Amino acid sequence: MQILRAADHRRMPWKNGGGETVEVAVWPPGAGLFDFDWRVSMATVAFDGPFSIFPGIDRTLSILSGSGMILKIDGKEPALLAQDSPPFAFSADIGVTARLVAGPITDLNVMTRRHAFAHKVVRLHIEQSWSGSLPAAVSLVLCHEGKAAFELAEESGMIHTGDVLMIEAHNREALTLAGAATCYLISIMEADD
C-alpha cells in the first residue's frame, strides 16, 4: 500500500500538445505515452478540439470540475459528460472530439492497454463510511474532494484532496473509508480476470 501525495504528481504535456496532464500513476513505472500498460491522470481541458489517439488503449473519463463537455465519437451519438455523470468508457484509438459546455473542465482519465489489462472506475460519495472488497490486482482510490481515513488489514492512514491510495497484492481484503469525501475507486485487472 502506498499514498501518492498530490504535491508529488508528475506534470507533462499532452500527446497532441494541446494542454497539460497531471500523471497520478503509470505502469510500468516511468513509462511514457507510447509504452504504458496502464495510466491514471488528470487534465484540464480549456478548448474544444480532438482527443489524442492511443492505438490499442481503452479509456474512461470522469468530469472532476467545470460544466462538462460533449464528446463526439466516430460512429456514435454525442455523449454529454458532467460532474454527476457516471464515468464514461470508450476506445482511445478512434476519433473523438470534445466541445466544452461552458468553460474549462478538469477530468480524470484512466487508460489500459487492451488485451493486457482492463479497468473499472466508480465514484464514491462518502458521508460517514464506505466499505468494499478489492477484487482487482491493483486498486487506486483518488480523493477528489474532502478527506478520508482508510483501513485495510492492519494498515491505516488518511488521504486528502488530490491524494491517491494505491493498493497492490491485497488478497481481496475489504477496504474501509471514513470521513466526508468524494473519491474515485479505480480497479486495474489483468485482461483475463
UniProtKB/TrEMBL annotation:
CDD domains: cupin_HutD_N (cd20293). It comes from the Bacteria. Coiled coil: none annotated. This is HutD protein.
